[in-house]
């Protein structure tokens, strides 16, 4: 079984501040991990993906995430928030064996203040 | 490159009316296909997925159904809509196998009145 917990349904930051969106996962086998972004009234777009090649994964728009097995975490960060980063962010986990259909977290809404 | 399209983008339907949302994928063969729903302020709910023509798995019992008449076509249907069917519906695809990225369509807003 696999699951994802995103801590905080809303995160508010000032423009230029560090962005940190938290994701913890549970998986009985080595996982694949994803972060997606959803802008209003649009589908989800892949930000980055962890496939065990490297623990620090760089994605689009300056985002990166670090896989920490000991903490079962895959937090998303960006050094400096931009107004255009305001969106909904989803973490997802997919198992490397058995059912490979990803399980999505409930999402975190990122609010960026000027 | 691969693309995914779903339509209509928005629709308003009365309670008890039928529903048909369509989705097509181009540029790949034998994809996995998915239908998700987002209710307001909630996360993604997987409704159906398909690993091949005519093969549909339902994740949530409801008055919706899905069909895959062709390799790259996925249809979400209902015979009689309920108010609770309102939401944002997303079609998606991925390659077969573990760890593959799911790619989403633009979404369809359904309001049942």
Q: Major β-sheet of chain B, in short?
A: 7 strands, mixed
Rg of chain A, Cα atoms, Å: 14 Å
Assign the structural class of chain B, choosing from mainly alpha, mainly beta, alpha/beta, alpha+beta, or little secondary structure.
mainly beta
Mean pLDDT of chain A: 92
Largest interface: A-B, 24 and 21 residues
Helix share, percent of chain B? under 10%
Report strand % of chain B: over 45%
Task: Characterize the overall form of chain B.
Answer: globular
Give the termini separation of chain A: 41 Å
Mean pLDDT of chain B: 93
Low-confidence stretches of chain B: none
Tell me the strand percentage band of chain A.
over 45%
The helix count of chain B comes to 0
**Structure summary, number of beta strands of chain A:** 11
Helical run tally of chain A: 0
Question: What is the succession of H and E elements of chain A?
Answer: EEEEEEEEEEE
Estimated helix fraction of chain A? under 10%
Task: Give the N-terminus to C-terminus distance of chain B in angstroms.
Answer: 38 Å
Taking Cα atoms only, what radius of gyration of chain B do you get, to the nearest Å? Answer: 13 Å
Major sheet of chain A = 6 strands, mixed
Q: Oligomerization state of this entry?
A: heterodimer
Question: What can be said about this structure in brief?
Answer:
The complex is a heterodimer of chains A (114) and B (113). Chain A is mainly β.
Summarize the structure in words.
The complex is a heterodimer of chains A (114) and B (113). Chain A has strands at residues 2-7, 10-14, 19-27, 31-38, 44-50, 56-58, 64-68, 73-78, 87-95, 103-104, 108-113. In chain A, the strands form 2 sheets. In chain A, strands 2, 4, 5, 9, 10 and 11 form a 6-stranded mixed sheet that branches. A 5-stranded antiparallel sheet of chain A has the order 1-3-8-7-6, with no helix packed on it. Chain A is globular and about 45 Å long. Chain A has 114 residues and is mainly β. Chain B has 113 residues and is mainly β. In chain B, a hairpin with an 8-residue loop joins β9 (87-94) and β10. At the A-B interface, β4, β5 and β9 of A face β5, β9 and β10 of B.
């Amino acid at each position: 079984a696999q699951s994802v917990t995103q801590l905080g349904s809303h995160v508010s930051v000032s423009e230029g501040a560090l962005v940190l969106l938290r994701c913890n996962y549970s998986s009985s086998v080595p996982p694949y991990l994803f972060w997606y972004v959803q802008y209003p009234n649009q589908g989800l777009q892949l930000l980055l993906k962890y496939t065990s090649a490297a623990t620090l994964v760089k994605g689009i728009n300056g985002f990166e995430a670090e896989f920490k097995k000991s903490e079962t975490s895959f937090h998303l960060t960006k050094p400096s928030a931009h107004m255009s980063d305001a969106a909904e962010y989803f973490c997802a986990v997919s198992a490397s064996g058995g059912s490979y259909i990803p399980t999505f977290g409930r999402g975190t809404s990122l609010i960026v203040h000027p | 490159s691969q693309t995914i399209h779903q339509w209509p983008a928005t629709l308003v339907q009365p309670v008890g009316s039928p529903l048909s949302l369509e989705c097509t994928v181009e540029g790949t063969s034998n994809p996995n296909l998915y239908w998700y729903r987002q209710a307001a302020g909630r996360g993604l709910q997987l409704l159906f997925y398909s690993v091949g023509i005519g093969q549909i798995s339902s994740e949530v019992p409801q008055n919706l159904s899905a069909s895959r008449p062709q390799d790259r076509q996925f249809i979400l249907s209902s015979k009689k809509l309920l108010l609770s069917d309102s939401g944002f519906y997303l079609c998606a695809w991925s390659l077969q196998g573990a760890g593959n990225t799911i790619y989403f369509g633009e979404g369809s807003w359904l309001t049942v009145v």
